[in-house]
Design brief:
Layout: H1 7-12, H2 15-47, H3 68-85, H4 88-96
Length: about 110
């Protein structure tokens, strides 16, 4: 029922496919219970923290990994756009945020 199969669809599956579905369900249950346990542990540790100690975040941000080729193509695209159009777009971003751009001292 949780996977959206009808009885006829489920009966049409082979034994190996049924085993894979059961394993996927088991992995989901384990993942959900692990996530709940870590959330409860985090909440309890935050509740009993010492005064002045910062809260522990439940989710930590992970940086996105990119390949060197993708980085090089992105950088070359930005440099090409700068050479073609100039850096007026940077000034526009600073102006929209009410800030002044520092000029390079050569």
């Amino acid at each position: 029922m949780q996977f959206g199969y009808t009885k006829a669809d489920y009966d049409a599956l082979t034994g190996t496919e049924k085993a894979f579905i059961l394993k996927a369900y088991e992995d989901k249950v384990v993942s959900d219970s692990t996530m709940l346990a870590s959330a409860v542990l985090n909440a309890v540790s935050n509740a009993f923290r010492k005064k002045g100690k910062p809260f522990q975040k439940l989710w930590k941000k992970k940086p996105k990994h990119t390949s060197k080729e993708q980085q090089q193509t992105t950088i070359s695209g930005v440099l090409a756009a700068d050479a073609k159009q100039g850096t007026a777009w940077i000034d526009a971003i600073y102006a929209a945020n009410g800030r002044k751009r520092r000029k390079k001292v050569e």
